[in-house]
Amino acid sequence: MQSQCRIGPAGFPLKGPHGTDAMPYLRKIGLNAMEYQAVRSLRISRRPAVELGSAASENNILLTLHGPYAINLSSDRKLVRKQSVQRLVKSAEIASWMGAFHVTFHPGYYSGLPKELAMQAQKESFKNVLDKMGEKKISVELGPETTGKPNQFGTLEELIELSNSFENVKLTLDFAHLHARAGGAIRSRGDYEKILDKVEGSLGSERMRSLVVHFSEVETTSKGFGEKRHHPLGSGYGPDFSRLAELIVEKGYSFIIICESPLLEVDALKMKKIIAKIK
After folding, report:
1. Which CATH number is 51's domain given?
2. Residue 224 lies inside a defined structural domain of this protein
3. 1 lies in a domain?
4. Domain assignment of residue 25, yes or no
5. DSSP letter at 174?
6. Threshold 0.85, pTM exceeds
7. What is the DSSP letter of 209?
């Protein structure tokens, strides 16, 4: 099976136009995906969202959307959970306006709860979100993202469990976060393979298609566990994208790879070239 990955930046390009004009620009430079950033604001209205989606479709740019950072579905405060549900439903609605098929978001924190109770709170919140999406006839994929700090809900195992508990839920696989959370654990091709095999073994080969993957190199905190900041490809912090690219090509994965490097489309193009050389 041949790999047919889509690759693009987490946000509008650094060196090109924003808004609808970004779509032909991305196509021109050779990219075919983009994550719309709604991490701090859900203020975009329906008309510009639809216009952005139309421009993306016309230029063969597949859109995903990143929801607000201010989401905590396992908060010990009912009001915070209620507002988080509202923000996630609104994110899904905006994504549906612009034709984005997937909403990436950070699911929240343990908030002092035992992990099993945090999971229970997450599942209750997810059911609430999906029920409200159903009432609004919104059909987009929810993508809770593997998180990079030990106090955040979102280990690989936790998000696999959520992905298998609900339809229209499939984790966003962030390798920088996995790397940082485990103290710089992704050092070899084998380390990548263990992660991918675990996801595929749990979700199945069919659901590996169109898996949304985030990638950048990452600096860990002074204590060694948890992310501090993202860095460009080749910074030396790791993880090494080329080892992941080898597996993507060999296994024929068709991921949507979103570049979260500070260099956005510049490094997204580097990723594309790395994959092309392996082929």
Report:
1. 3.20.20.150
2. yes
3. no
4. yes
5. E
6. yes
7. T
